[in-house]
Design brief:
The structure holds two protein chains of two kinds.
Chain A lengths: L5 H10 L2 H5 L5 H13 L1 H18 L8 H10 L8 H5 L1 H13 L21 H15 L8 H5 L14 E11 L2 E10 L2 E9 H5 L4 H7 L2 E6 L2 E8 L2 E7 L3 H8 L1
Antiparallel strand pairs in A: 1-2, 2-3, 3-6, 4-5, 5-6
Chain B lengths: L2 H12 L3 H8 L5 H17 L10 H15 L2 H5 L6 H13 L6 H6 L5 H7 L3 H12 L4 H8 L3 H32 L1
Classes of the chains: A alpha+beta, B mainly alpha.
């Protein structure tokens, strides 16, 4: 049997790294090598699309909830102190995890304040559904450690501008895909909560069911499910979606 | 640490992960079984809470305990009976990446039934399914998955890569089967 040629071996070696490239887990050198290889290798381009597609679909899977009786049983193992522990306010990750628990129960929806017409659940609006799923993943990973607007704006054909609010501290940025469109994710600490902002092309936001009508009418879309607020609007010619463990009325102060 | 403070810390660092653990446990057992495993996990976690050095890493730590609980009940082996035929999935994956035609995968994923992916996850080998579930559904990083599953990071990457390939192959195969049935009727 003929052994693979040198380019063939190199291709096989790089193909094995595509999952790591998809997930942002490679070293800088490996990342560069894959980017270079992808320019000329159609097969690896298809493999990359496959890895991204499956990963995105899995991130959107609804998760079952623990039953109320089970939650009760576990809480009764050692009852929770009614006093709010100091730990809670000081650790962003714990706050994010609590928000995560709220996001994880999507599906059983309590609508709080749609400005649209039909009161459609957020899970049925692709861009908002994907934004919440991406937010859940970013929170679960405690957010990318870098906040680099210039890097995140590279390659995007819309402006990436951070919120212009004195008390919102930008601490993380990342590139992502929302409803099939390239998007920028920006995370802020604001008044004791984490707010995640997604910047997307405004036309994609306007095409979303119910959101488009709300934007044309009130100029913004707002909804709330199980304590998590979502606010969408167009600002500086760019679509913006805010997601946070706060009522949308509160989020309006950040942007409108 | 005082008992009251320890209890509060235990709850704030572990209870937010309850739903995710039930999701993970459902890969080894259904309904009540999954909940029993998670409850057992919390009992053991409380007993060993002093060993958790970084409360921010509570989820991977809980996953590790849950795996042990599930493995003790030998459930992972029973699941293997339902495995799809791997070479068929590899062939279907190869067709997806080697073909010049537009890939049907995106459309199949967009049209998927609510439970389709979870069922597909049950049909590929355990080690691959577990790695992609921990990464893509629960947001663990490679090094955290390596810690939970006790394998090197390179193995995690290869399992995730191969797991997604097999899953894509399975989805493509099921899509073809559905189409054949539709055309046949």
């Amino acid at each position: 049997m003929a052994s693979p040629s040198e380019p063939g071996r190199e291709h096989a070696r790089l193909e094995e790294l595509i999952a790591g490239f998809t997930d942002g887990e490679l070293s800088w050198h490996q990342d560069r090598a894959i980017q270079e290889h992808l320019r000329n290798c159609e097969r690896c381009g298809r493999e990359l699309a496959l890895q991204q597609g499956v990963s995105r679909a899995l991130a959107l899977e609804a998760m079952p909830q623990a039953s109320a009786t089970m939650r009760q049983r576990i809480e009764q193992l050692r009852p929770i102190s009614r006093r709010r522990p100091a730990y809670w306010s000081g650790r962003w990750a714990a706050g994010a995890a609590a928000a995560l628990a709220l996001i994880a129960v999507a599906g059983e929806v309590v609508l709080g304040g749609h400005r649209g017409q039909a009161g459609r659940p957020i899970a049925e609006i692709p861009m908002l559904r994907d934004a919440r799923a991406d937010c859940r993943r970013a929170m679960a990973r405690n957010f990318p450690r870098k906040a680099d607007l210039k890097a995140v704006a590279e390659g995007l054909d819309f402006q990436v501008r951070a919120l212009d609010t004195a008390d919102a501290e930008l601490f993380s940025t990342w590139k992502t895909t929302i409803a099939g469109s390239p998007a920028a994710g920006l995370a802020y600490r604001w008044r004791g909560i984490v707010v995640v902002q997604y910047l997307v092309p405004h036309e994609v936001l306007e095409q979303q069911p119910e959101v488009g009508e709300a934007l044309r009418g009130a100029g913004f879309y707002a909804a709330s499910e199980l304590g998590q607020g979502v606010l969408a609007t167009v600002a500086n010619g760019c679509g913006t979606v805010l997601v946070a463990d706060a009522p949308p009325e509160q989020l309006r102060r950040l942007i409108l | 640490m005082k008992a009251e403070a320890k209890r509060a810390l235990f709850h704030t660092s572990t209870l937010p992960h309850l739903d995710r653990l039930v999701t993970l446990a459902s890969r080894w057992g259904h309904g009540q079984e999954a909940e029993d495993d998670v409850q057992e996990t919390y009992v053991r976690a409380w007993a060993a809470f002093d060993q958790l050095r970084d409360v921010e890493a509570a989820f991977p730590w809980l996953c590790q305990i849950l795996r042990t609980v599930a493995a003790e009940r030998y459930r992972t082996r029973a699941r293997r009976q339902e495995l799809a035929f791997i070479t068929e999935l590899e062939k279907a994956h190869e067709e997806l990446v080697a073909s010049d035609e537009p890939s049907p995968l995106d459309e199949l994923l967009a049209r998927r039934d609510a439970s389709m992916l979870r069922e597909a996850l049950r049909s590929i080998p355990e080690e691959f399914a577990e790695a992609i579930e921990l990464h893509d559904m629960h947001g663990l990083k490679y090094r955290e998955i390596a810690q939970v599953t006790s394998v090197p990071i390179g193995t995690v990457m290869s399992r995730i890569s191969r797991g997604r390939q097999l899953l894509a192959g399975l989805i493509a195969l099921r899509g073809q089967e559905k189409e054949s049935r539709r055309v046949g009727t």
